[in-house]
Amino acid sequence: MGCISVAIPGHEYDVHIEPGILARIDEVALRTGKYRGACVLADEAVYKLHGSKVENALRKTFSQVVVGLQPQGEANKTLDTVRNCYDVLLNARLDRDAVVFSFGGGVNGDTAGFVAATYLRGVAFIQCPTTLLAMVDSSVGGKTGVNVPQGKNLIGSFYQPKAVVIDPEVLRTLPRRELCCGLAECVKHAVIADDSLFSWIEAKLPQILALEMPVLVELLERNIAIKARIVEQDEKEQGIRAYLNLGHTFGHAIEATAGYGVIEHGEAVALGMIAAFELAVSLGICGCEAAERVRRLIERIGLPVKADLAANEALIAAMASDKKRKDSAVRFVLPERIGAVRIISGAERGSLNAAWDSLR
Ligand code: GLY
């Protein structure tokens, strides 16, 4: 079925999208290299539901298969989890011919990818994302890493996988709230790069929420293609990859001030997009009809459009300490319309206050 190629110079790989593909994950792995041992670093809750498919497939091909389970949630995206994963690999004496599989959502993929990037200075890595958010965003493009008390994703590396394997059937057990969070990133992609995708999501939302498989596969293919084309042009986020941070400057400030885990990342991004549109409208960059259309779609998805936020002062301070800040000014990705964005440096206090107030 679907296969999207990611052509990053020196790191070409395929994203395979196919219902039931987990039962053949060994075949997909073997097409990317010769490996002697396999290690699955999995989200323990997801592993209980679907892990046997992965493990049975790998045992057909690999004489050594070890599994390390990680607790779920952003709070576990830490160096302690990374150390536990190293122990799994070291205790099994896996060498450089091993391949590491992630099996879970974005937290799992980012952590497992960082482990693969650093174990014995780097072993092969295959991403098996199991949330919509990880499928359309974090599993593609090679960002890996963990959070530290000083901030989110401050320790990590760019480390491209050998392949991404997506079985949309696993979305049937994904909680609705998580599905909606993934849809926030789909809306983000449409706003950045593809107004026809935006209209398509508006039209197909009932089928998407009903998990109709052909529609889900098309949703995955269209979104992953957008992400792939961006990271191919700018692997290390020197330019247009920053567009993918639409809604994130506001969103990270919401997450940081609420305390990680209180609000889901996709929910914070949805709120952040609404605030970014509000700021763009007040700066005269974007028309208010586009802003209203985006707010309506976010609301129809079931994502929050209002929130119990910290004071503006705390939110603006949190934005200023975001790592995507360059020099002294905070950089914002702002929409010009649905399908095109631009980056601006700095915004005056009154406009920022109005953007935050639009979420109350
Ligand atoms: N999630 C944004 C990026 O991969 O750059």
List the helices and strands and how they pair.
Elements: E1 2-8, E2 11-17, H1 25-30, E3 37-43, H2 44-61, E4 64-70, H3 79-91, E5 98-104, H4 106-118, E6 124-129, H5 132-138, E7 143-148, E8 151-158, E9 163-166, H6 176-193, H7 195-209, H8 213-233, H9 248-258, H10 265-282, H11 288-301, H12 312-320, E10 331-337, E11 340-345, H13 349-357
Parallel strand pairs: 2-9, 3-4, 3-5, 5-6, 6-9
Antiparallel strand pairs: 1-2, 7-8, 10-11
Helix pairs in contact: 3-4, 5-6, 5-8, 6-7, 6-8, 6-10, 6-11, 7-8, 9-10, 9-12, 10-11, 10-13
What would the keywords be for this entry?
single chain, 360 residues, alpha/beta, Rossmann fold, 2 domains, two-stranded antiparallel sheet, 13 helices, 11 strands, 48% helix, globular, binds glycine
